[in-house]
Amino acid sequence: MTVRRGEPKTLRDAHEVVMDRRPPKDANPSAWLAFRLGNARLYKAVADVDRGHHHEALYWAGYEERKAGEISAELQAEGTPAD
């Protein structure tokens, strides 16, 4: 996975992007799922570029994947498709 031009190249930049695109607390669970999955992809890409924060970026990618898994499980329990 590579970071394209104009995308975050540091872990700090990635955190800022994540906070800027965070949905409102009352957003639909599907919006939160998309947010979490997008964050995981972003942190994985940054881990390849910001080598000084490689392991920390991978931690955040895993964290976001776990959160996405929790949301997905809740949606499945409710019988709502996880898009």
Set down the secondary structure blueprint.
Layout: H1 11-20, H2 29-49, H3 54-78
Write structural notes for this entry.
With 83 residues, the protein is an all-alpha fold. The chain contains three helices and no strands. The chain has helices at residues 11-20, 29-49, 54-78. Helix 2 (29-49) runs antiparallel to helix 3. The longest helix has 25 residues, at 54-78. It is elongated. The two termini are 23 Å apart.
The percentage helix is 55-70%
Q: Using the alpha-carbon principal axes, give the shape.
A: elongated
Biggest sheet features: none
Beta strands, count: 0
Strand and helix order: HHH
Distance between the termini: 23 Å
DSSP strand content? under 5%
Number of helices: 3
List segments where confidence is low: pLDDT < 50 over at least 5 consecutive residues.
none
> For the residues shown, what is the average pLDDT?
92
Structural category is mainly alpha
Backbone CA Rg: 13 Å
Task: Write a compact overview of the structure shown.
With 83 residues, the chain is mostly helical. The protein has 3 helices and no strands.
